[in-house]
# Entry
Amino acid sequence: MNQSPPVILTIAGSDSGGGAGIQADIKAISATGGYACSAITALTAQNTCGVEAVSPVDPAFVRAQLNAVLYDMPVRAVKIGMLANQAIIREVAAVLARSPHLPVVLDPVMIATSGDPLLDDDAMDALINTLIPRTTILTPNLPEAARLTGCPVPTTTEEMYALVPALRKLGCPYVMLKGGHLHHAPESLDVWISRDTCQTLSARRIETPNTHGTGCSLSAAIASFYAQGLTPIDAGRAAKRYLTDALAHSQQLIVGRGAGPVHHFFAYPADESVYLSKHALVESHALVK
# Structure
């Protein structure tokens, strides 16, 4: 019997450069064994050098995309990224309220790489009050965690752990606090927070400029692994391993003149002859059959 991969719905902005946002989500979900469908919240004109323009999608059309997917597709998990504004946040929250069984992984995209805020105060309030309490796993980086809690941005592992009580008060069952911004640390350390425990997830730090879309890819992979039956923390561990390998292989991609993307499909052969030979073998078997 043929078995379909689990369906993961990603709700995020589109990256015309292909390295982050919806495009990165689809790649990460596909590479980790899921089937990706999407609802686009914003269009961006961007590349590896930066973002040139952003155009939010009409909230009613965001709702239409969500309704179309959820009506037809057996969605097993939802990943949320860039939401652009308060109206879109409230639409997404209202639609998800009708599907309380669906696990949600929320990557709170609110601060640009330049440090500029991507959500105004009204949108932040809507995110904190309507969407984060509905979230299963929250995946903030250090600047995002600081803005969510009103605390200073951590500069040490000890300061990361000091954020734990404030992050728990947000009402989300699980938080994966990402420590990638601690560039001086010899390892990449994240703190996995549940309601009563904390654990450190560590991996080797990959020195590469190709970090575009890392947050999107990690949260999408968590949703994919979770939809395949892993526990929340095991999904976090598996996604961290996947992202570490995708970063380690990122130098194999020569894409753009700025901060390049990770290599989502590092585990697949890049040699066209390998694919062609496999494809020919399948065709020959079909002819014999």
In short: DSSP finds ten helices and nine strands in the chain. The two ends are 18 Å apart (CA to CA).
